[in-house]
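During the second year of the project, the team shifted from modelling isolated chains to modelling whole assemblies. The rationale, set out in the original proposal, was that interfaces cannot be judged from single-chain predictions alone. As a representative example for this report, we include one of the complexes processed in the last quarter. Its constituent sequences, exactly as entered into the pipeline, are reproduced here:
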Amino acid sequence: MLRFILKRLWYGLLVLLGVITIVFFLFNILPGDPARMMLGQRADIASVEAINKDLGRDQPLYVQYFNFLNDVSPISIHNTGNPESYWYFGEEKYSGTRLIPLGNTAVFLKKPYLRRSYQSRRRVSEILAEAFPKTMLLAGVSILFALVFGVAIGVFIAVKKNAIIDKIALVFSVLGMSIPSFFAAILNAWIFAFVLVEFTGLNMFGSLYTVDDYGRGEYLDLKNLILPAITLGIRPLAIVVELTRASLLDVLSQDYIRTAKAKGLSKFRIISKHALKNAMNPVITAVSGWFASLMAGAVFVEYVFDWKGVGVVIVDALEKYDFPVIMGAVLFISVILVIINIFVDIIYGFLDPRVRLA
Amino acid sequence: MDNHSLISIKNLSVGFSIESGNITAVDNISFSAGRGTTLGIVGESGSGKSVTALSLMGLIPSPPGKILGGQVFFQNNSGPVELLGLNEQKMRHIRGNQIAMIFQEPMTSLNPVFSCGNQIIEAIMQHKNLSRKAARERCLDLFNEVRLPRPKEILKAFPHQLSGGQRQRVMIAMAISCEPSLLIADEPTTALDVTVQEDILKLLLDLQQAHGMSIFFITHDLGVISDIADDVIVMYQGKVLESGKAKDVFHHPEHPYTKGLLACRPPLKDRPSSLLTVSDFLRSDQDTELLKSAVDVHEAAEKRKEHHRIIYDKEPVLKLSKLSTHFSLGKTILGRSRGFIRAVDNISLEVFPGETLGLVGESGCGKTTLGRTILKLIDQTSGEIHYKGKNISQLSSGELRPLRKQLQIIFQDPYSSLNPRITIGSAISEPMLVHRLVHNKADKKQRLDELLERVGLSSEFANRYPHELSGGQRQRVCIARALAVNPEFIICDESVSALDVSVQAQVLNLLNELKQKYKLSYIFISHDLSVVKYMSDRMAVMQDGKIVELGEADEIYFNPKTEYTKKLIRAIPGTGN
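Output from the structure prediction step:
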């Protein structure tokens, strides 16, 4: 199992290297001069050059690429003597410890440095650290909602196959799968936070923290989570229902289910023990895929409900050509995806012993 | 019901409703069995034997299945009960407890995600009032009883980690775990190697004696039953054709169908030029037929000698020298290999034009890999393959294409080797189009009809889909597909193993006819020594990737040199040992 995880981690690293390379060259081919963007079109040449030097943009592209790699890698080489060098281990950029000193340079173990936003000059890592927990919370709650209700409904209608309830559920799940998320978001906001606000007491929009103007300051407002989470969960829910039903029906026709029946087990036990564990693999695949993509920020839903997560950060940065933020966010999301995939592989191994061999 | 019988079935009928209407799978059958006896239920696929067994257990999938009528009286511990009228809860109490069942496919009958121990302990705890610990002990005892090696490891092992024979032993342990009075074994050895089959049969007999169980042994293979059954019923199209003491049925079969079933297995002692089939018996007077085959035997032996004189003077059509195919067991993180399985290990042999070379061995001996390596479907690790004097082992796939036309393969499973969404006609004509053997539609049509006729199918089959055909018909289609490109060399990889015995006889006859007509050479691969012996001129016995014995087929059968070959011969069912 350990080998298996190590192997997956190794592949994950390769994937990340690929992502870094593609992202770097993509954003360096796009037009746009960050110094001009920061200083405005009327800035003098000297300031522009100073900023370009500061960002390392006076170097050839391949040097910039290695600088970027060096910046994001947790183990990196830095200059310790010359504060003028881009590689200088300066406090305002890096934080970490020296591993192996090599004269004027040294190998460091440090936090990956994702650079600073062109716009706000804040660290990209700070911006992401602020937005990501909100996205993760939203994604986690909606996936949990989809999984719990989806599996329950899926099992129920699989058992009642061909009954009228089965047909109704199928119609709803097709509807749930095909409804666009921005439309569902607006519809939900309008129905539950406007028309029915008397009963629900929900806000039409709002983030995890609400700032109170009457002296309470910033406080946690969990009820703002409900509408975006349900909205985001609708499509995964519909898919989980469909998959659970199809997969369970397939499993129920297998030989080992007949064996279980021949043992004299009750129908409940056959489904809850013998069938469900076998039927879960496709569901886990689908759910993990959705979870991963929701982690990358559900742009429309976050936008409609003004939920200040990663999706909103990326959209803002794209609007303003704020490359470090976009690059940092893409990299960060890739890391999350790689980790989730490794995690899912481990769950597979737990659900199906046959996978453990591979 | 009479009091001394354990179970008696009266006028049972079972039907299935499918799209095109209702079919009666079991048609008004009656039989009974006493305590401690073995009843063989014999029939080909579709005869209703499995449906009968599942009805007794209340396991007919419903819908589409439906019990149409009849009664089943079973001598419960507390007195007789009528099984078909029981409610689900009472039936659950009988299932697994008093009537247990073993299924055909040990590969798929165990739940892949639970350990073997877990699945048996569950069965024990369902019916016996035992703690988990006591059930575990009982499970270990059972594993010992079914002669599984290292019971403690198997308790924790998952089904995919065991061999087919071991899985079937686990299934048997599960079935006898609650000491049932009736054990229904539905083709329990069909999917297993012959040598394993022999062990399992012996085990079942021993268990029967130890526990005083009754056994219903369902099989399509009369040979298997002749060794173990007390009574036999022969089923055909949902009806019981013949029943009685096993000895009587085997030695003095009454019904032509039973006679046909007995005759259509390839005989071991002599070698008729063609096999009798069930339909021969069903339609004509059997005495003249038997006579004809008796004449054939002598004539065929002479012909065979003559044939051998001719072919072994020729240059070999295929020559393998020191051929090896190894499979890697996976790679380490640094890309180094963790070891090899030597599936084909340093094999040298020759096949002469017009010869059938038989290749026999148990599953995993490498016979299939050898066949596929010859066709270059798998790359060899070392060694050379010469076809008609030309070294084909290093050819690129482009250079191989013209050769693909001459070398063809017929696979084992006629169900999965035909694409379900392609009509029979296009499946057969596709290779002709690929190799540009036909030039226009009329040409194609004519060739297609000709091929279908050759393999004994009418031309209207061209527009049908594989699922509309029976197993035998599908295998005929596969043969037609292989013949479509005018091959000279065909590898038959277990081509008749998935077929019923009577259909098997027809397909074997067809292969022999085609061989003569088109001057083909075959490599005939099978695990069934009796079939290989019948088909081959020379026969090679394979074990662990090596050829342990090679020679004239009759010579090997009558004077086996190695212990392994002797074991394979002993394991042929129905030879009465």
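The first strand of chain A starts at residue 75 and ends at 79. The beta strands of chain A are 75-79, 96-102, 105-110, 209-212, 217-220.
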